[in-house]
User: Which sequence fits this backbone?
């Protein structure tokens, strides 16, 4: 099934027929990330940590003590949400990266839970490989094709990617990585500048020469950071791929409870 996707930028309004879906705690404190956005802009109510409220819908990912829930318990609430969307087909649901901010889970742990949901949802772009297609193998040819100034600094990066000689899965990956917010803040409002500068320092003179304080280099580094996080790589892994010394298979989504 093909779904609709959003670019994960912070939003403050949606059409009247669209509900803002966010990860919450059972205490309903709504103090950070998408939960705070839901409280300030989409009618979420203090103390309501589950279900519909105003123009929002809360999926619990933390308990009333603000502790991370097991994945199996989150799956239960996601399954309830799937039923809700099926029973309300005229409403659209703008899903944020539920559980991937304060709760501390990764996209590949959370996104597969939403597989098979009804068509009236709008997923974050980072969910796409896990609800629709698998990620492609990371190769030198692939990374050197889309991690370029011509794509990253294009007026329309998504269109630039569509013009590349890549498979559909590779174009999907490139679009996700280039459009994932990292600099100056990620989609959860976190400042990632220090991490990006650290990456650029490691890569300096090994793939390119970087001015770690320049705006362009930080944007470029943010794209690389998005790729590293998606594939669970470090800078040395990326250097190996860039230099053609190895190819890296995509991570497998494994549903297991964290301790």
Assistant:
């Amino acid at each position: 099934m093909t779904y609709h996707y959003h670019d994960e930028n912070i939003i403050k309004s949606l059409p009247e027929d669209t509900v803002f879906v966010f990860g919450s705690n059972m205490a309903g404190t709504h103090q950070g990330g998408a939960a705070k956005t839901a409280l300030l802009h989409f009618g979420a109510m203090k103390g309501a940590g589950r279900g519909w409220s105003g123009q929002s819908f809360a999926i619990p990912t933390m308990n009333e003590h603000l502790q991370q829930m097991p994945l199996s318990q989150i799956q239960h609430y996601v399954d309830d949400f799937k039923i809700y969307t099926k029973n309300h087909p005229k409403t659209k649901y703008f899903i944020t990266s539920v559980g991937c901010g304060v709760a501390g889970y990764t996209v590949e742990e959370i996104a597969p839970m939403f597989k098979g949901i009804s068509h009236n949802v709008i997923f974050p772009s980072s969910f796409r490989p896990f609800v629709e297609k698998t990620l492609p193998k990371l190769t030198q040819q692939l990374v050197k094709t889309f991690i370029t100034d011509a794509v990253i600094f294009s007026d329309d990066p998504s269109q630039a990617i569509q013009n590349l000689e890549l498979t559909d899965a590779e174009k999907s990956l490139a679009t996700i990585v280039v459009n994932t917010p990292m600099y100056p803040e990620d989609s959860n409002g976190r400042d990632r500048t220090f991490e990006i500068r650290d990456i650029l320092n490691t890569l300096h003179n090994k793939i390119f020469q970087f001015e770690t304080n320049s705006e362009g280099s930080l944007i470029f580094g943010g794209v690389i950071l998005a790729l590293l996080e998606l594939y669970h790589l470090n800078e040395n892994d990326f250097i190996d791929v860039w230099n053609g010394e190895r190819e890296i298979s995509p991570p497998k989504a494994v549903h297991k409870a964290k301790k």
Q: What stands out?
A: The chain has eleven helices and six strands.
